[in-house]
Design goal:
The protein is an alpha/beta fold. It folds into 3 domains: 332 residues, ANL, N-terminal domain (Rossmann fold), CATH 3.40.50.12780; 173 residues, 3-Layer(aba) Sandwich (Rossmann fold), CATH 3.40.50.12780; 102 residues, GMP Synthetase, Chain A, domain 3 (2-Layer Sandwich), CATH 3.30.300. Helix content is 32%, strand content 25%. The strands form 8 sheets. It has a 9-stranded mixed beta sheet, sandwiched between helices. Strands 12-11-8-6-7-14-15-25 form an 8-stranded mixed beta sheet, sandwiched between helices. The protein has a 4-stranded antiparallel beta sheet with strand order 23-24-26-27. Helix 3 crosses helix 4 and helix 11 packs across helix 12. The longest helix is centred in the N-terminal third of the chain and has 17 residues. It is globular, with a radius of gyration of 24 Å. It binds 5'-O-[(S)-butoxy(hydroxy)phosphoryl]adenosine.
Length: 632
């Protein structure tokens, strides 16, 4: 089907799936509409009530100060997020409750209780202190999704250091840019990660990435097999040596609600990633609350989010929001379909997972392997299935519903962003879901679909998705670049511009249609076209490059690059491979173009800006639209 027809079909989706009675009966939120109304009428009162469920060393004097476009939440309050994620549970009798069940590709399993995690985090926090890390210092974390990775984040938060997790699938160039921008004093890494049965070394990547960066004082290395660290450099310290030589007690740093918690880099429309900054109090409250009501978490639930700690989903819904609820989570390292496509389903059976949160790209991958794989396992423990990262197409929705959920689970399609910190539009388990539509706004969140001047569009019309009012877990700024932060709020005057295209229907369900800007969503990962273009132009044979996203069966979108070569270089298959390798080295495997085409000229505006939408229209056989600004 052509893209346009697909859209028309989507806009007409009217199908609804009622949640099963057993799920509604136990749900925290039974009446969405009335609670939503209440939350919008008294936004501050609503969040204050939620915040009362958590512990504060000192309560707030004021819930919200909105000084457009800057917001402060829970002014004057003091807390520490790790106190709410760990100590609070240990003190209330959950010392021996399992916090995480970690499983690697060889099915080696390791469990850690809340009590043990608190001790590990406290020791590491003291260790970081002994290396000179203080409140406000930045620490880059380049670790796979493991207990040690999570503990590294929490150890920073314990002492008020600002962590910047860099996805361990990123390469040297991407890592260096992020370490440099944050001016990290310490980097925490592991000797390797494992993917598809192969060892992927991380330490050499870190060594290259920090080469010549004087401000990086120490590198903490989790030497997984005890065979990597030669000890010849004074910069390197072994993770467990540091942990074991440090005291198991570490008082949590008293953090102001508005003290920074972490930076997470994400792609935008320029070549340089933005350092999205989140603070302590509001982020804690909204991630805690959305975890609770969207995943409907209860004391005995086993929860599993298949994301990586390198992305915001890992931060909010593997670590902070989930631990704040005190449940048991599964975490895994490695590929979903290795050693076979039954891996994930075997864990759901083995650990009796109740809530499972994954991305549409993974669902489409498993659709290709066939329903025989999940059919081999007992998935009857599942109650709630989550989706995140990109629009879930109705085919994938139905497959997930039937073959994973056994037609008795609720699917929550959660729309949010690195910038929003927590769920913003999503179904909650007490009202019917519509395949392909994310659902209604989170409590107190007011969204709209507008034209470029901010005028509200009628139902079932595609426009820009905006958020009209501040929310607790919103980003506070972009690290070192306040003008980039302000752009979110002044692209369309007075509202937060999310960068997505959307529409809403007469019942208020919002459907997200994808990005409106030069950002590509590859397998749920956000890639900036300019980042890939700069990586290509960095190669000696390349004069100019333009990158577009193309629809892809499994990945949602794939990357296609158009390249103009410098004089003296000829197009060849070898050169294509060389360019792909180059992007892989600079940015990492996720950013490698599937296709590279050599051309002689790029469509540009008279002012020299590449018109990617023309390349895209040509590639996909769409109408080109307005070309009045085209130079040639
Ligand atoms: C972009 C944000 C949110 C954590 C993972 C990605 C897309 C996200 C959905 C959804 C349709 C979605 C949007 C958004 N997106 N969730 N449920 N339905 N699209 O975080 O890397 O900051 O990317 O992901 O395009 O703007 P991110």
């Amino acid at each position: 089907m052509a893209e346009k027809e697909k859209l028309e079909v989507l806009l007409k989706v009217k199908e609804k799936y009622e949640p099963p009675k057993e799920v509604v009966d136990r749900a925290w939120v039974k009446d969405y509409e009335s609670l939503y109304k209440e939350s919008v009428q008294d936004r501050e009162g609503f969040w204050a009530k939620v915040a009362e469920e958590l512990e504060w060393f000192k309560k707030w004097d004021k819930v919200l100060e909105w000084n457009y476009p800057y917001a402060k939440w829970f002014l004057g309050a003091k807390t520490n997020i790790t106190y709410n994620c760990l100590d609070r549970h240990v003190k209330s009798g959950k010392r021996n409750k399992v916090a995480y069940i970690f499983v690697d590709e060889d099915n080696n399993e390791r469990k850690i209780t809340y009590g043990e995690l608190l001790e590990l985090v406290s020791r590491l926090a003291n260790g970081l202190k002994s290396l000179g890390v203080k409140k406000g210092d930045r620490v880059s974390i380049y670790m796979p999704t493991t207990i040690e990775g999570v503990a590294s984040m929490l150890a920073c938060a314990r002492i008020g250091a600002i962590h910047s997790v860099v996805f361990a699938g990123f390469s040297e160039g991407a890592l260096r840019t992020r370490i440099e921008d944050a001016k990290a004093k310490v980097v925490i890494t592991s000797s390797y990660t494992k993917r598809r049965g192969k060892r992927v070394d991380l330490l050499p990547t870190v060594e290259n990435a920090i080469d010549g960066l004087e401000f990086v004082e120490k590198v903490v290395v989790w030497d997984r097999d005890g065979d990597t660290l030669s000890g010849d450099s004074s910069k390197f310290v072994e993770f467990y040596e540091l942990v074991n030589s440090s005291s198991p007690e570490c008082e949590p740093e008293e953090m102001d609600a508005e003290d920074p918690l972490f930076i997470l880099y994400t792609s935008g429309t320029t070549g340089k990633p933005k350092g999205v900054l989140h603070t302590t109090g509001g982020y804690m409250v909204q991630t805690y609350f959305t975890s609770k009501v969207v995943f409907d978490l209860h004391e005995d639930d086993i929860y599993w989010c298949s994301a990586d700690i390198g992305w915001i989903t890992g931060h909010s819904y593997i670590v902070y929001g989930i631990l704040a609820n005190g449940v048991t989570s599964v975490i895994t390292e490695g590929a979903p379909d290795y050693p076979n496509p039954g891996r994930w389903w075997s864990y759901i059976e083995k650990y009796r997972v109740n809530v499972f949160y994954t991305a549409p790209t993974a669902i489409r991958l498993f659709m290709k392997y066939g329903e025989e794989w999940p059919a081999k396992y007992d998935l009857s423990s599942l109650r709630i299935l989550g989706s995140v990262g990109e629009p879930i197409n109705p085919e994938a929705w139905h497959w997930y519903y039937k073959h994973i959920g056994g037609q008795r689970c609720v699917i929550v399609d959660t729309w949010w962003q690195t910038e929003t910190g927590a769920h913003m539009i999503t179904t909650v388990p007490s009202y019917p879901a519509k395949p392909g539509k994310a659902g209604k706004p989170m409590f107190s969140v007011e969204v709209d679909v507008v034209d470029k001047d901010g005028n509200r569009l009628p139902p079932d019309t595609v426009g820009f998705l905006v958020v009209k009012t501040p929310w607790p877990s919103m980003l506070r700024t972009c690290w070192g670049e306040p003008e980039r932060y302000e752009k979110y709020w002044n692209t369309i005057q007075g509202v937060y511009f999310a960068g997505d295209l959307a529409s809403y229907d007469e019942e208020g369900y919002v459907m997200i249609l994808g990005r409106a800007d030069d950002v590509i969503n590859v397998a749920g990962h956000r890639i900036g076209t300019m980042e890939v273009e700069s990586a290509l132009v960095d190669h000696p044979a390349v004069a100019e490059a333009a990158v577009i996203g193309k629809p892809h069966e499994v990945k949602g979108e794939s990357i296609k690059a158009f390249v103009i070569l410098k004089k003296g270089h000829e197009p060849s298959e070898n050169l294509i491979e060389e360019l792909k390798l180059h992007v892989r080295k600079v940015l990492g495997p996720v950013a490698v173009p599937d296709e590279i085409e050599f051309i002689d000229k790029l469509p540009k505006t008279r002012s020299g800006k590449i018109m990617r939408r023309i390349l895209k229209a040509q590639e996909l056989g769409l109408e080109v639209g307005d070309v009045s600004t085209l130079e040639d």
